[in-house]
Design a protein that fits this description.
- It contains four helices and six strands.
- It is an alpha/beta fold.
- It has one domain: 3-Layer(aba) Sandwich (Rossmann fold), CATH 3.40.50.
- The longest helix is centred in the middle third of the chain and has 11 residues.
């Protein structure tokens, strides 16, 4: 099985996720998302990541991204989170 291709939204706290995923065998960060173009391009350039998106909806639409680390406050992300009944798992869905 190949690496899991990841995207990260929010490059404040998400920068820590980026560093951790890059050091994790089996994970490959292929896309970044941030509203501020300067931060988005700076992190992308520093880590050699070419896919860069200004909105959550755009990174979620990238079919090559298999999982997304959402590092945003829920109200600003445009995502809805619901707890799966009887578990500690959360389901996140986008209003695309």
């Amino acid at each position: 099985m190949g690496d899991v291709r990841l995207g990260i939204t929010g490059l404040g706290v998400g920068t820590w996720h980026l560093e951790s995923f890059k050091a994790t065998p089996g994970a490959e960060v292929i896309a970044l998302c941030h509203i501020d173009a300067s931060r988005l391009n700076g992190r992308g350039d520093a880590h050699g990541i070419r896919r860069r998106y200004p909105s959550v909806q755009e990174i979620l639409a990238d079919r090559d991204v298999e999982a997304v680390s959402v590092c945003l406050p829920t109200p600003s992300s445009g995502l809805t989170r619901r707890r799966w009944p009887g578990t500690s798992m959360w389901k996140t869905s986008a209003a695309v």
